[in-house]
Amino acid sequence: MSIYVNEELKEFHLQTKNSSYIVKILKNGEVGQLYYGKKIKHKQDFSNLLKIVPTPASVCEFEEDPIFSLENIKQDYPSYGKGDFRQPAYHIEQENGSRITEFSFHSFKIYSGKPKLLGLPATYVENEDEAKTLEIKLFDKLLNAELILYYSTFYDYDTITRSVKIINKGIENLYLDRFMSFSIDMFDSDYEMVQLSGTWARERHMYRTSFRPGIQSIESTRGASSHHQNPFLAICRKNTDEFNGEVYGFSLVYSGSFLAQIEVDHYKTSRIMMGINPFDFKWKLEKNKEFQSPEAVLVYSDSGFNKMSQIYHKFYRERLARGKYRDKIRPILINNWEATYFNFTEEKILDMAKEAKKLGIELFVLDDGWFGKRDNDRSSLGDWFEYEKKLPNGIKGLSEKIVELGLQFGLWFEPEMISRDSELFRKHPDWAIQVENRKLATGRNQFVLDMSRKEVRDYLYETISEILKNSKISYVKWDMNRNISNIGSYKLDKDRQQELLHRYILGVYELYDRLTTEFPDILFESCAGGGGRFDPGMLYYAPQGWISDDTDAIERLKIQYGTSIVYPLSSMGSHVSAVPNHQVRRVTSIETRTNVALFGTFGYELDITKMNEQEKDIIKKDIEFFKNYRELIFKGDFYRLLSPFESNETSWMVVSNDKKEAILGYYQVLFEPNPGFKKIRFCGLDENLEYEIYIRKNQELEKIGEYNGDELINFGLILEQDYIRVFLEEITENGDYNSKLFILKAK
Ligand code: DGJ
Known about the structure:
Strand content: 25-35%
Distance between the termini: 39 Å
Helix content: 10-25%
Radius of gyration: 27 Å
CATH architecture of the largest domain: Distorted Sandwich
Largest sheet: 10 strands, antiparallel
CATH superfamily of the largest domain: alpha-galactosidase from lactobacil brevis
CATH class of the largest domain: Mainly Beta
Shape: globular
Bound molecules: (2R,3S,4R,5S)-2-(hydroxymethyl)piperidine-3,4,5-triol
């Protein structure tokens, strides 16, 4: 049983494997929040968990009841204007200027399965038994509108999803200017907040701060979830670490401008909410129309961040990502971007592809610069036809030659953009997002197409699908290299202009849906100038994404570590690139670059025709090695062991589901002379099994010894001088940026 109901008291107890979530209909018909946390036994009456602080000065809804004040009650989807002075979850303007609503309990429904969200990405069930859904319907008589709160519990996946829908059944328009996906009031504020923040080439670094009175928030106003803030927030107790303590994860399945907010009130309770960013958002809801919020995925762990991440990894890999590639090992790719940038010919690409094939690479990806007259980033976006100067045989001819070599072929697009210097812009200047008579700002010398317009989406669908149909294409990289400014649409009425950013992302989702449905055999990889839109929304359409334009192995330690807080390795694009690295000029060994990149969807992004035989031999062996372990890396359980945000060392490992095999990566950023004792404690192994441990040295596995699972977990493995760099004499090159891989096999 995963949802209990007490009809008389109108209490609902949602359970997952390890968590409980309890709500109750309050005296005024709104929803009260009783509990969210570690699973507790069900009982008939949980009203003792409802906190009402009696304060005489508060605004009360009922004249005869001076205690019932919304300000002092924990709520689950709080309204505006009736005495709760914290921020509401929704705010609806009416034709008469009022913003006061009175949605109160109407009915509820519980059923197996989970409904789809119209036009929005969301988690799903494969069979109805996997989830149970509770719908609580609230009704406002005056507005004649319904507000439906959706709670789905995936018992075994240990997750709860939330979403809200409003249906206008009245005769007047409603204007939603705040419509969050969920809101929850926690009893206290003795928490810390963890966010994944950064910027271009430095995405998803971890930040942890204490709650304080007032509002703390993260948001994007960029029309994309952004490099700067990921639509994710965790709250944890002060003592929580990777393996101990309570943590709650809140992740929004949305790729547009969002807000995630924590409000600590005067009684030190905390209100957490997430949803479409209300800033510059207003949605006109006409009669008989409905509006649905994006979905939020809630996870509770009583054993630290690692467990929370593992829950998200499995759930997102299996019940958010979709399609043929969801469960399929992804091809090892080579991408020509950092090898050639815009400067390539068909001959050059074929030379690279031939070498790639010899080394065991499986997919060749042709990046930016193959279309229109694109020799640099100043032209041609929108002109999705081949640049004959570079590709005399077109994409069709090139793709056929690459497939003949025994490789798959993939192609880059940036569908949502338009260059001033393009045939498309000359023909349809109004297709760019802009405000009439105002200057149009460029970003990377390009403008953003108005994806809210059907004719724009149809044009993109037709031109892109034409190429996909006529050539031998197995993979598409869908890039998006600037954020949206000068927000205005030629097509939308003036009272709908503030709908544009949400309509934009719905348009992107629609185009993704059409293309992925029409081409189910193509693997899509999302990208946005690296990880500028790496979020759960994208994962629904593209099971993998390019997580950052920074390919430096050392920078990647933080980026991959931070990304792994929510996202599975199967979703993380990670490539070995050339040295000196193009973003930071750092020189790291091929060993370290490989040891970092293979914890993800592995690939290369360098000019292999320029490598010497010795380097190529290394790559060949690395690829063979990866092929032996990629199933494990793709589907195993990921553990973070040492954090790059806390020390000079990073370590992580992946353990197979049956615990019989594991791979561990250990990285030392700076050389540390004479460091004393070092050991590493393993996680996720079977205490009762005996393991052989191998270290990978010079592309070969060398056996270190045999150890019991319990000693590896409780004591660990001493890192001998042989394994890491401790003495200067051993070192012939730069002593920094060292790394090692360990393989464990149960006997
Ligand atoms: C940004 C991407 O992140 C890069 O990998 C590359 O595709 C460039 N765009 C091409 O313009």
